[in-house]
Amino acid sequence: LLESAWKLYENENVIKLVDGSLDHEEYMPEEVKRIIEIALLCTQSVVASRPTMSEVVVLLLSRNSPEIMPTRPTFIDSISRVRGETSTSSSSSASKATVSISHLSAR
Description:
With 107 residues, the chain is mainly alpha-helical. It has one domain (2-76). The chain has four helices and no strands.
C-alpha cells in the first residue's frame, strides 16, 4: 500500500487513493494531497524525521501544506528490488512455521 501511495504521490495522482464510494463533491483534491503528504511524512526512513503525534494533530488542524515535504523511504526501494529479483527467479522456497500453545489450569 505504501509503495502504491508513493508512486501516486510522485506522479501527482494522489486522488486515486480516495475511496471510490465517496462523492467527488465531498472532498477537495488539495485537501487530499495535503493529508497524503502528512501521512507520508509519518513513513520517513529516519525516525527522527517523522513528526510526533502532537505535530501531526497540528498539521491536520492547519489548512496549510506541511513545510517539510516527505522523502521516499529507502525500504520501498529495497522492497521493489526484492520483488523484481523474486519475480524473475524460477525456483522458490518456503518454510512452515509451527506454534505450540499450552493452556495451564489450576488444580
